[in-house]
Amino acid sequence: MRLSQLLIPTLREVPAEAEIPSHTLMLKAAMMRKLASGVYIYLPLGKRVLKKIEEIVREEMDRAGAQEVLMPAIIPAELLKESGRWDVFGPEMFKLKDRNDREFCLGPTHEEVFTDLVRNEVKSYRQLPLTIYQIQTKYRDERRPRFGVMRSREFIMKDAYSFDADWDGLDVSFDKMYDAYCRIFDRCGLKYTVVEADSGAMGGKDSKEFMVTSSVGEAVIAYCDSCGYAANEEKAECIVEHESDEEMKPLEKIHTPDVRTIDELVSYLDVKADKFVKTLIYKYKGKIAAVLVRGDREVNTVKLANLLKVNENDIDLAYEETVRSVTGANVGFAGPIGLKGDVLLIADAEVPMMKNIIVGANETDYHLKNANYGRDFKADVVSDIRKVVDGDKCPRCGNPLKLERGIEVGHIFKLGTKYSDALGANYIDENGNEKPMIMGCYGIGLNRIAAAAIEQNHDDKGIIWPMSIAPYHAIVVPVNVSNDAQRNLAEKIYDELSKAGIETLIDDRDLRAGVKFNDADLLGIPIRITVGKKASDNIVELKLRRDENSIELNYDEVVNKVKELIINSI
RNA sequence: CGGGGUGUAGCGCAGUUGGUAGCGCACGUGCUUUGGGAGCAUGGGGUCGGGGGUUCGAGUCCCUCCACCCCGACCA
């Protein structure tokens, strides 16, 4: 392709709307443009990258025995009402009506549609197992689209669903997808970690997320270098510290006028935050729970939701009036001793190990000093409900955990019979009995792979594409197109590379060398062939985007050298 | 949905106490130049986010709506 003809409006200045490197570079390198918040146009270069990723995903899914189909983006409301998710998704869905007032939505995900297909077309154990997938655009009206393509409202996803006769079969299907995912992300040149994830109170197990490590990732993952344990923040656990051997001191009421938060208490009393226990009042499904965690800890609401056996969004911090009626005090003075009414008292596993702690007194402007678990108060439930922090002990081997941020590019988990039960996706087994199919669900965000690859592969000049997903393999740059020798040799090389099946660009624009070099660096094309002053001697330069230095070679060596470079890096 | 911020040329921005809208880059034309974002000359491009109001006069002041960005909440 000729740059003189390619729609490639690179930007010289950084667009004001972009905050992270991948977003900035995708705009600057003319891969995409924004149409609305979280809605993007892909230009030729961006589209090529997506196609490359798509092709890798397709090859690996096919290799793993999955079959490609294509589902409609428009889904009738009844189907989602049948599974109950019309209400679960709620405002996250783009909803629409047809001319006869029938309700539809733009598919945010396709469990129901796949299950519907299979329940109608698959009847016998002889037809199982079956894994089908599609590569298709999903629509989610995110509350807050963010960071360009990282969290957008329209995005391309590969979603696959497996149907098995039994749980052992599901394990086999699941493992195949796991392996396929590893191959996909390896081939895309990504550094990633597979972490254990929570699949919520609504069922599903063996939930695993593929996280591309990146400082701009929205997810936090905890991992252990010693034993390989890795989990996302919601799921991550740790070993509880041993019981403190301090002597118990007598309980004492202390005056703390207008001192409410842990921060304020720390400076008012000059005591470290780890000597406090804070009491948070939560409301869930009309009931009230008081949650105790150490002053410097945070409650993990996913763990709390699982403990209470409710959905995470059924839990909320209680309003002021509820707090007042439960504690008999203003907000900021809640404590475990003397709570009124029907309150479930939950203590984080760490709390019983602490001695002589400071808690709220359930009386405005007062706290209690030297409170001790067992002597002064007891919880209804003691459980791990806090977020892990850097340095906590690994639940498997006891070595310190590390925290890192990650971009979730893939998620696989075992659904079981959630949708087959809801929609009646049954089969007849060898004995003539009707049984629900056992399902698995496997997703990959294709646009996110592109963005994640840029996050992991860029410098201050631009993108540095891995060969496998680069929009083009090579770019030929004649330094001066008005020089006949340079132009002719560049054209000859471009021709030969193209004929050899190498995806090649030629920068035939009548621009200064600096502009062309800067664009080539910005676009991130892996191999650059510069045709300059030595063109008359048939000598050209070859430079890799990821390296500083270039080498000179005779023009007739170019095709073989480039071929070799591509083969060695895919 | 709460908090903060921004909307002026394709992009990045300036615009004073209210007085007929500018700069850089980009774009068109001509000449010179040509190995890391050229120089000179010349030209085109604006409902100043929309609507309403105050005023002789509004990019500027007031009201209102909208869009976009950031933080938080939320995210099968």
Automatic annotation (TrEMBL):
Enzyme Commission number: 6.1.1.15
Keywords of this entry: Aminoacyl-tRNA synthetase, ATP-binding, Cytoplasm, Ligase, Nucleotide-binding, Protein biosynthesis
Listed CDD domains: ProRS-INS, ProRS_anticodon_short, ProRS_core_prok
Gene3D superfamilies given in the database record: Anticodon-binding domain (3.40.50.800), Bira Bifunctional Protein, Domain 2 (3.30.930.10)
Locations listed in the record: Cytoplasm
Matching PROSITE patterns: AA_TRNA_LIGASE_II (PS50862)
Pfam family of the protein (one): tRNA-synt_2b
Gene Ontology terms for molecular function: proline-tRNA ligase activity
Superkingdom to which the source organism belongs: Bacteria
Keyword Nucleotide-binding annotated: yes
HAMAP family: Pro_tRNA_synth_type1
Quaternary state and interactors: Homodimer.
Stated role: Catalyzes the attachment of proline to tRNA(Pro) in a two-step reaction: proline is first activated by ATP to form Pro-AMP and then transferred to the acceptor end of tRNA(Pro). As ProRS can inadvertently accommodate and process non-cognate amino acids such as alanine and cysteine, to avoid such errors it has two additional distinct editing activities against alanine. One activity is designated as 'pretransfer' editing and involves the tRNA(Pro)-independent hydrolysis of activated Ala-AMP.
Protein name: Proline--tRNA ligase
Organism for this UniProt entry: Thermoanaerobacterium butyriciformans
Gene: proS
